[in-house]
Structures are given as C-alpha cells and as structure tokens.
Amino acid sequence: MPPFLNHDTFVNILFSRVERATVTRALVIVNALVFVFLAAVSMSPMQIPADLLIRVGGNFAPLIQKGEEWRLFTALFLHGGLLHVGLNMFALHQAGQVVERLFGRWGFAVIYIVAGLLGNLASLWWKPGPVSVGASGAIFGVYGALLSYLLLQRGSVPSEIFREMRSGTLGFIGYSLFAGFTIPGIDNAAHLGGLVGGLVLGAAFAEPIIAPRPVRWLAPRALAGLLAAALLGAGLWQTAPQVVRKFEIDSAYQQTVQRFALEEQELVREQAALMEALRLRRVTEAAALDKLEHDFIPRWDRAITQLSWRQAPGGQEWQRDELVHYATTRRDALKALAQAFETRQTVWIERSRVLQVQAENILLQMRLRKSMETARP
Questions:
Q1: Rg of the chain in Å (alpha carbons)
Q2: pLDDT for 283-294, tens place per residue?
Q3: Which of 71, 113, 121, 275 has the most CB atoms at less than 10 Å from its CB?
Q4: How is the chain split into domains, by residue range?
Q5: Which fold has domain 7-241?
Q6: Selected catalytic residue, list 123, 132, 136, 176
C-alpha cells in the first residue's frame, strides 16, 4: 500500500509517468479523420450508409467468417454518424487522459485494442447480422480498466479523486448500458465484451501509483490477464453462429430476383411493342409467331428455370414460388397467343387474355402480402 498521497502529488506522479497522452490523442485524431473521409464520400454525415461501412471494413459476420478477420480491428475506427463519433471521442478523450497515465502508453494501447477486439467478437457471437462499427467496445474497455484500478489500487488514489473517478466511471458504464438496452440500434454486446476485457486487463496490469513501471509485463498476474483475454476471445470466436451459408443464399437469391425483375420488364415491354407493331401492320403474323416461339417463350422458360432452382432464404420461399407462378402464367399466355396465330381460333386469343389478367393478379397479391408483412410490428 503506497503512502497517503494528496491531490497535487498524485497528479504530479501521473504526469511524470506520461507527460502527454499521445496515444489517446492519436486515436481521437485517426477516428475523426476516418469519419470525415466517410462523411465526404457518402455526403451524409448524420448517417453513414451501411453498405459503405461494410466496404471500408465494418464488422460484418458473413465476410469475417469467410476469412476477413481483419474487420474486427478496422471496425474500431469506423462510426455510423456524427453523433456516434462525437460521443465516442468525447468519452475516449476524457477517460484516456487518465488511463494512459495510469497504465502507460503501451499498457493503454493493449487495453484499448484487446478490449475493442473482444467487444467486436462479442458482437459477432451475440448478433451476427447487421454491420457493427465504432470504438465504443474499446472505450468501455478503457473505463473497465479504470474501474479495476480504482478497486484494486484504492490506496494509490486520494480520497476526493477516488470518489470523483468512481462516480464518473460507474455513471458512464451504467448509463451507457441502460441506453444500449432501451434504444434500438446500439450494440450492447460490444459494450459488454469490451467492458469485460477492460476489467480483466485492468486488474492484471494495475500497479501502485508509485511503482517504477506502470505495467510489469512479465509478472504472473499480467500474463494471466493476457491469457484470460485470449481464451475469452477464442471462445467467442469458436462459438459464434455461422452465418456465411445463410448470407450466400440470401445474396444469390437477391441477385436472381433482380435479374428476373429486369428481364421481366424487358419482356413485357418488348411484347407490348410487338403487339402494337402487329396492330399497325408493321409486322406480319408469321413474323410475330416466330418472335414468340424463338425469343419470348424461351426467355420466359429460362427465367422460370433460374427461379425454380434457386434456393430462397427462410421465410421467402413463398415469394420465389409466386414469381415462378407469375412467370409460368406469362409464358402460357404467350403460348396461347402463338396457338391463336397458328390456328386462327379466337378461343386461344381469349385464353391468352385470361392468362395475362391472372399474371397481373399474381403480382398484385404479392405486393399486397409484402406490404402487409412490412407493416406488421
């Protein structure tokens, strides 16, 4: 237990350890510069688009589990909006000034990075769906390390400073976790993962304020803390739900649907143009029949095959089946029209008209069901 320290002596020792909190300042500057770049690219500083965050290195489970583990690190320097980066950098600057001096530059850097990685792994383990970004997991680690120091090295901190730091630290942690549980879109898993990492490393690294070195790296306690953090990270990584296959199915299905939508629009437009040209006698019935049999109908067949063989994500099988039904009805309407050209029987023209109306009704029912599902709470 170090001797009693007054306020001035404590502050002097802190600043003699680390005169300028250069790591903290560097982190704030880097995060700010990255955000300015993203805001300039997106032209939307209040809300950076999710697809841009994914492209530049956000914590996105399907890509991480396909071999892009570096995203666990880069996501620490990305933020989703001006308020997000502003609050995070304010909290980092406030706590980092103290924690960097308590644990030294290297100790602070290790706490920040390891806690941030654990936070992102916890996010991957708990909710591996939407992209997750931000330094909040690492910042929670900084506050967790500060809390561990205050609890384990109580005698190193003067009473008035201890009370102020303790209330500020507990207030930040408590309010932030409460907000994370009540406000949608906040990644509380990353907060908790970073907090646990900071608590562990803070307890492992904490040395009396008068110790000659802020961290004794080869001390059993420090090594045990690093090992515990590594084992926790490995456990989160190994037990995280695997979403790569689901992502691949979703992506392939969406691409197929998009291609079908483009082809369907083109076919309907070309069919309307052909019927108009036939009405104006710009093409013969023989030419129209050839176009139907050797162009339009084969293209509908290909679209039906591609949709039928494409696996749909869970809950969207109905959409694929209805699109197949729609495409089949459109194709059958053209077959009936081709029969009308060949046989000159009006019954086939009526059959074609009825099938086209059925196809339009299928699309209308799909839109209604989709709007109802979207509106459902």
A1: 31
A2: 998 999 999 999
A3: 121
A4: 7-241, 245-375
A5: Rhomboid-like fold (1.20.1540)
A6: 136
